[in-house]
């Protein structure tokens, strides 16, 4: 009993009494620091701006004179071989199809997505596609901008 | 449990609602759902499509829509008599939620417990409830007449 007490006391003295003579992590080396050299020769380039630009808005509103525009384009591309009803003009030939769709995309700023290209068989399909409106905002934002009745309260802070 | 073990009430309406005008007994509807989260899918769809129509059709009901992160979406209905009913709308379709909300709007705030009698009336008897002395001649008027006959001077 007495022996164990002695041992414990000795251990305590060793660990707590004398402070360590050196720092724990690599303090033994001599502190010889070279004077910092100021470099003025090479100009430092500005860091590139890493802010992500906002994504392109996919909004599309069909213009008023869509039908007439489309008709004029179709007649221009197909030439005199077109029948009376221009909407039935078949787009099977790739060159004609490409020209028509490229022109429309450039003019209206809204391109047919590649997943839907196979669905564009006639000029009527193209007309239907360009007549559909594409909305950008989520339904929540739409709700926010729409006029709410006075008895509907929406808490907007998520 | 038996009928005696659970709560029960008599058939009644809140302040004779419907006798004159009809007042929608639903006071407040609070929709709590998560903007992400798969169990709130129906709730989100309901808020996007149907809640506006419901609010327009029931101008006397205040609808609070709270998108906040929650485990299961709920709809809390508060009634004019103070009753509060909470329903969980997790994993329900838009049609089911529409039906549920319409049901809540049609209810009065009275509790959904066993109704003791399926009928109730404020005027149970028009001509008076029968008792054994109904239609029996009373003895009192005959006694006074006999006394008058015996002693005509005394009035």
TrEMBL record, chain A:
Predominant cellular place of this UniProt entry's protein: mitochondrion
Intracellular or extracellular location(s): Mitochondrion
Domain of life: Eukaryota
Keywords: Mitochondrion, Ribonucleoprotein, Ribosomal protein
GO CC, any one term: mitochondrial large ribosomal subunit
Family: Belongs to the mitochondrion-specific ribosomal protein mL50 family.
Protein name: Large ribosomal subunit protein mL50
Species for this entry: Chelonoidis abingdonii (Abingdon island giant tortoise)
Gene behind this protein: MRPL50
UniProtKB/TrEMBL annotation, chain B:
Alphabetical keyword list: Mitochondrion, Ribonucleoprotein, Ribosomal protein, Transit peptide
A GO cellular component entry from the record: mitochondrial inner membrane
Major location category of this protein: mitochondrion
Keyword Cytoplasm: no
Membrane-traversing stretches: none
A biological process term (GO) from this entry: mitochondrial translation
Cross-referenced InterPro entries: Ribosomal_mL43, Ribosomal_mL43/mS25/NADH_DH, Thioredoxin-like_sf
GO MF, any single term: structural constituent of ribosome
Classification via PANTHER family: 39S RIBOSOMAL PROTEIN L43, LARGE RIBOSOMAL SUBUNIT PROTEIN ML43
Sequence similarity: Belongs to the mitochondrion-specific ribosomal protein mL43 family.
The name this protein goes by in its record: Large ribosomal subunit protein mL43
Source organism (scientific name): Chelonoidis abingdonii
């Amino acid at each position: 009993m007495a022996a164990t007490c002695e041992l414990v006391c000795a251990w305590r003295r060793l660990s707590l009494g004398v402070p360590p003579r050196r720092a724990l992590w690599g303090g033994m080396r001599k502190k010889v620091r070279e004077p910092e050299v100021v470099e003025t020769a090479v100009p430092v380039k500005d860091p590139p701006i890493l802010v992500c630009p906002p994504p392109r808005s996919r909004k599309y509103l069909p213009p008023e004179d869509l039908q007439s525009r489309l008709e004029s384009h179709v007649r221009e591309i197909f030439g005199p071989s077109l029948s009376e009803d221009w909407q039935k003009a078949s787009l099977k030939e790739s060159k004609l199809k490409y020209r028509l769709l490229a022109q429309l995309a450039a003019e209206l700023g809204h391109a047919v997505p590649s997943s839907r290209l196979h669905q564009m068989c006639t000029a009527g399909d193209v007309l239907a596609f360009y007549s559909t409106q594409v909305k950008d905002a989520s339904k929540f934002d739409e709700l926010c901008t729409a006029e709410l009745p006075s008895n509907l309260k929406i808490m907007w802070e998520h | 449990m038996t009928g005696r073990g659970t709560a029960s009430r008599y058939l009644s309406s809140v302040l004779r609602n419907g006798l004159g005008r009809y007042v929608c007994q639903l006071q407040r509807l609070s929709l709590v759902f998560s903007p992400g989260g798969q169990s709130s899918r129906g709730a989100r769809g309901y808020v996007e499509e149907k809640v506006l129509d419901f609010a327009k059709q029931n101008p006397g009901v205040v609808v609070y829509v709270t998108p906040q992160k929650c485990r299961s979406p709920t709809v809390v209905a508060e009634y004019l008599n103070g009753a509060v009913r909470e329903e969980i709308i997790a994993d329900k379709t838009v049609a089911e939620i529409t039906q549920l909300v319409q049901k809540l709007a049609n209810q009065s705030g009275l509790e959904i417990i066993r109704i003791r009698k399926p009928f109730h009336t404020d005027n149970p008897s028009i001509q008076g409830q029968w008792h054994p002395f109904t239609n029996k001649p009373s003895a009192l008027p005959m006694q006074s007449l006999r006394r008058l006959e015996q002693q005509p001077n005394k009035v």
